[in-house]
Task: structure prediction
Amino acid sequence: RYGEKFAKAIEGKWAEPAMGDLMAAVDYAVSLGYIDSKRLGVTGGSYGGYMTNWMVTHTDRFKAAVTQRCVSDLSSMFGNSDVGWDMSWEFGGAPWENREMYLKWSPMTYIDKCITPLLIIHSEFDLRCNIEQGDQMFMALKYLKRDVEYVRFPEEPHGLSRHGRPDRR
Result:
């Protein structure tokens, strides 16, 4: 059920089929009457932060969103993440070798579609999803005059919600 085939499902296409799976789960929960479809929120950290960014740039179903330790631009992640080298395997080369793939799967490419109010939470010592990933989302949304807030945590690593100072989790 969760073997190699499952793990490879997002290889080279980071947002799919995850987007379809997540939206199907939301639709199912709504159909059961557990949640109000007019008051949906979305949040996630790391890859979940990437998916939060993807969702708010591809649907307007959410009333609010919180992206944590996010990825917003895969080309810049290649150059400043401690796992940036992995991008070349994921997308069939470096950004200059396969520019279309990096653009296609980067939420920043679609930032003008984001109308969902967004809170960005990021750690300044994050080596996995560098702080500039959050900076890019914030600056672009401010430029577009969208509803966005940004909270930066100094001296915190990628695992802020698990390993950060207790008063910051």
